[in-house]
Specification:
By secondary structure, the chain is α/β, with parallel strands linked by helices. It has twelve helices and eight strands. The protein has one domain: Aldolase class I (TIM Barrel). 44% of the residues lie in helices and 15% in strands. The structure holds phosphoenolpyruvate.
């Protein structure tokens, strides 16, 4: 079922103590201030997961996720973490296909397809990111790029497995840059994604897929972005590191 979700991506920020403290603040603020049914997911570095999973508040829809997994189940992959390991410390979600992983760590569509499978096999729900670079936007190729990322990364799934995914449209030129897609630009792409899903899996699956927007989302622009028909919430980087900013974004769905 399509849901309203605000997910935070802490990236490689916060030491152990800082992360636990921020997560506790978020849990308390959600308990005190959130009156809607929106869901909150915090994707922390691996070091925090085991501890914050014990503070997560399922009654108030606050859960946690990882930011990456390796595609193999186990083995000689020094420094990597498998889906089952992330799951064993309480992760329920995992961000896959983030543009930083695609760009800096060579994650191809083919690798991402394997990671999606590994996540689902271990009951981790992927938050699968897609989005175009600045060049791809300016040359008008962005629809093709996004469609291809979906086709190569997740369209090998049958409808039942696809239904476990959350998608995040994250224009690369808007991530961490302070540049945000306008609500119209974001809505145009979200509607396009839903159409591509409808063509592949049918109208019901398309209608029930949660599609988040990510890219310099903040307390001032969240309401206009999230009020677009096909935008179901946000994947938040920088603004998820400040509890008050993050909560204000979450509270966009209070009314
Ligand atoms: C992200 O990295 O997923 C992201 C959306 O970052 P920011 O909000 O900082 O642009």
């Amino acid at each position: 079922m399509r849901k309203n979700i605000v997910a935070g991506n802490w990236k490689m920020n916060l030491n152990f103590e800082e992360g636990v403290s921020l997560f506790s603040e978020i849990v308390n603020m959600v308990k005190d201030e959130v009156i809607g049914k929106q869901e909150v997911i915090v994707c922390s570095p691996f070091i925090h997961l085991n501890t914050i999973s014990k503070l997560a508040d399922t009654a108030n829809n606050v859960s946690i996720g990882a930011q990456n997994i390796h595609q193999a189940e186990s083995g000689a992959y020094t420094g990597e973490i498998s889906a089952s390991q992330a799951k064993s410390v309480g992760a329920e979600y995992v961000i896959l296909g983030h543009s930083e992983r695609r760009a800096y760590f060579g994650e191809t569509d083919a690798i991402l397809a394997e990671k999606v499978d590994a996540a689902l096999k271990n009951s981790l729900f992927p938050i699968f990111c897609i989005g175009e670079t600045k060049d791809e936007r300016e040359s008008g190729r962005f629809f093709d790029v996004i469609k291809s990322q979906l086709e190569k990364g997740v369209f090998h799934l049958d409808a039942e497995h696809f239904g476990k995914l959350i998608l995040a449209y994250e224009p690369v030129w808007a991530i961490g840059t302070g540049l945000t897609a306008s609500p119209e630009q974001a809505q145009e792409v979200h509607a396009f994604i839903r159409q591509v899903l409808a063509d592949k899996y049918g109208a019901d699956v398309a209608e029930n897929t949660t599609i988040l927007y990510g890219g310099s989302c903040n307390p001032s622009n969240a309401a206009t972005l999230f009020s677009q028909k096909d935008i179901d919430g946000g994947l938040i980087g920088g603004a998820s590191l400040k509890s008050r900013d993050f909560l204000e974004i979450v509270k966009t769905f209070n009314s």
